[in-house]
Amino acid sequence: MKLKLRHLQIESGGKVDLSRGKLYHAENVDLKNCSLSYNSTIKEYYLTHGSVTYGMNNIKPHRRPMSDLTKPIEHNGEKFTPIDEFFILYGGGFKNKKAFLKTGFIDGILYSPYETYTYSLITKLFEWHFNVFNLPKELFVDIIH
To answer: What domain range is 111 assigned to?
Structure first.
């Protein structure tokens, strides 16, 4: 698998590691501080940080494994458990969280292709920087909680 533009989830912000050998290496770079360009001749996207341009093979987005949905995470200085937030968003018709979880909501996220997710669900997963596209470990940096 090769990293593609959609895997960066640019609209959700987040961090990336950039590397072009030992001389040009930047960790934990905010995507908001990068500019995006496209070379139509070779059909390739690039990110520029400072005065250095990085090809897609030199970029590693920071992502959380999908298994972290049931673990406490920190996002924008706030600590919470994503499944609790999903219960607030989607569980209104259930008596309690246990009944909500019995619907298979988590299994539906973990074992269904992302193309089947609702817009609001995928937007939240992007916002919280989850590995929605199931990138192999060598293509992303795991966000440690």
So the answer is: 65-128
